[in-house]
Amino acid sequence: MLRRSSFGGTIPYIGIHMVDLMRWIGGREFVEAVSLQAHIGFPEHGQMENTTGSLFGLDNSGIAVLHMDYLRPQSAATHGDDRLRLAGTSGVVEYQESTGVTVIGAGQKPRIITELPKDRSLFLDFLDSIYNGKPAGLPLSDIYRVNEIVLAARESAERRAFVKL
Fold first, then answer.
1. Count of CB atoms within 10 A of residue 84's CB?
2. What is the pLDDT of residues 64-119, one digit of tens each?
3. What share of the chain is helix, strand, coil (3-state, %, to 5)?
4. Are 68 and 10 in contact (CB under 8 A)?
5. pTM value?
6. N or C: which end of the chain has fewer CB within 10 A?
7. What are the domain boundaries of the chain?
8. Residue 86 — φ and ψ, nearest 5°?
9. 86: how many CB neighbours lie within 10 A of its CB?
């Protein structure tokens, strides 16, 4: 991760998980990407980009934004402070580990969702699909598509240009 020659980049390395989550939660397809990336301060991070920003155009003319960084102070209580905000014409859903899931519907007061589905093991799901013929919860086509998206976002950052997906 410390050398550019041996690290695929922060956008593919971490962004793949967040892009997968954004596609799964939002249900929209990504059609273009524009990104920036940089290395600021922290010489112990070597050449690795420690801050990135990507803007994605969606198939319904919506916009998805992904910001990632390795700038969290050592004194922070947690390793990551991932958060998700999905805003649309009918309301807003927000998630942050420290606050949980909040839904704000049009004309409604914010409500915190406390009853969430139990976690499923992706590995057990994979084994079920291989050995028991059950449909995979994460189809191979989705895995390929998310890779295409983050590699296009990384290409955009390298070229400093919009990339069509």
1. 14
2. 999 998 888 878 777 666 788 888 889 999 888 778 889 999 899 999 998 877 87
3. 35, 30, 40
4. yes
5. 0.85
6. N
7. 4-164
8. -115, 115
9. 17
